[in-house]
Amino acid sequence: MIPPTRWLPMPVLSLLLLLVWLLLQQSVALGQWILGGVLAILIPMICRPFWERQPTIKRPLKLLGYFFRVLGDIVTANVQVSKLILDPRGRMRPAFVEYPLTLKENFPITILASTITMTPGTVSAHLRLDGRTLLIHALDVADTKALIDEIHQRYERPLLEIFES
Amino acid sequence: MIDTALWIALALFCAAIVLNFYRALVGPSLPDRVLAVDTMYMNSIALIVLFGIWVNNKDYFEAALLIAMLGFVSTIAICKYLLRGDIIE
Amino acid sequence: MLDTIIEGAIAFMLIAGGAFAFIGSLGLTHLKDFYMRLHGPSKTTTLGVGCTLIGSLIYFSREDGPIIQELLITIFAFITAPVSAHMLAKSALHHKLKPDPRTRGNPVELESEKPKHTVEEAPQGDSPLP
Hints:
The complex is a heterotrimer of chains A (165), B (89) and C (130). Chain A has 165 residues and is mainly α.
């Protein structure tokens, strides 16, 4: 999105730090801007060696759409899980599902795993590094094939377009 | 109206913490206990925020932020310990 | 009129948050095995706490302008909850906790008797290790 330069190795992180600083201080006075700006430049420069390569966001608008879709799904997921928990008969069909990943980079995989955990009936449990499969535990699933297809269509394909297309 | 809602929410969160405490005491395995304590700190964040509404003071938000950060870091640290503990024999 | 609507929204957020958190803890208490218990806290409690924080945000923004710093905790909670759930599931797999007998599918992680590697140290594939 924003090309990195020598002074700003991670522009998005710097922007985020400045924003969080201003939110924490609850003021937009000039002094806070200067202090936050200095921190936003210094902190990425100091901790740069610890970071992996930053992913490039190819389509920021799509990312926004993805964000709102996940937000909506979180609410439906919660209603669904609440129903399952409160069901007195406890009719659940738990299953371990192995999900084959097509994503390659670490950061999109992290986002996918987090999304899977927050959305209906599934928790990502384990990532195998060589086989490129993600182990998922599902609370109530009738058809594992359908679950894999749904995750692929709904979450992985947009991420693929956003980060790696 | 808000007062009533506040009382109901406080009661629900206290009940939730009691349930977590039960799981932390009984929990058959270590990850169970860690999970219970993890949930307990999440609930205590909400409890502190509700207390802030009760006394009408918004500074309690900082305490909640601190609990959120420390709780997350300690959960991850304990998980790391559980993952590595078996390896060093 | 507007005040009533705002108060109603705050009250709804607080009660919904409390109810979700309570259901999450109920799931933690009465579900059968660890992997099922993980679902309650990781999703429901997070949304419960998020709802409560948004209610508090509206409450304090009512008097003197918008105060959005409570949104920080909400965002933080939503980012960190999946990570800790993942770590807990991983440590449970490492300890080889038994899943409920109804659970379909048996992952390799639960089968082998001796743990040879962790993910951090060496790759671990579908093939049985020597």
